[in-house]
Amino acid sequence: MLEKGNLYIDFELVNKKLEKIRLSSLIGQKIALAFYPGAFTSVCEKELCTFRDIMAKFNNLSTKVFGISVDSPFANKAFAEKNRLNFELLSDFGGNVSRKYGGVHEEFLGIENFVVSKRAVYVIDEEGKIIYSWVSDDPGKEPPYKEIEEVLLG
Q1: Cβ neighbours of 47 (radius 10 Å)
Q2: Which one of 3.40.1440.60, 3.40.30.10, 2.60.40.1120, 3.30.70.100 gives the CATH number of domain 12-153?
Q3: pTM for this one?
């Protein structure tokens, strides 16, 4: 699991248009990664809509925001459209990137082979260093939005 002070781990995931997004190609600006357990769940919807609502601040700060889950690109597309999300959702189908960052919940909800991302937020600075990390073992807990905003403003 990555923590504050670590360098980012590069990855390439697909967005809702099936375009490949490589993290290393974005280094040079602040990046916020919001890992979430699943599209169309109440807490995830509230979290990503909160990020949507504060995006104006992120955009003014030249911060690129990504939501990341194990959902398919097709579920992410429908989720983004339903909630009018103004940032990219990336599909970590299989959870490999989630495992390297904040971790996953195995056998989620007691369902065999059902793996979801742990709710986690990382902010990466312009040099690729993690300047903020927050991970919750409780999938029902929302991230501390004010804390994240302060890091982005700092």
Answers
A1: 21
A2: 3.40.30.10
A3: 0.88
The type of residue at 136 is S
Long-range contacts of 17-21 (CB under 8 A, 24+ apart): 17/73, 17/77, 18/73, 21/66, 21/88, 21/90
Low-confidence ranges of the chain (pLDDT < 70): 42-43, 49, 52, 55-61, 107-111, 114
What stretches of the chain show up as alpha helix (H) in DSSP? 42-53, 55-60, 73-83, 96-100, 145-153
The one catalytic residue in 13, 23, 39, 44 is 44
How many whole angstroms separate alpha carbon 137 and alpha carbon 22? 27
Q: Is 49 a known active-site residue?
A: no
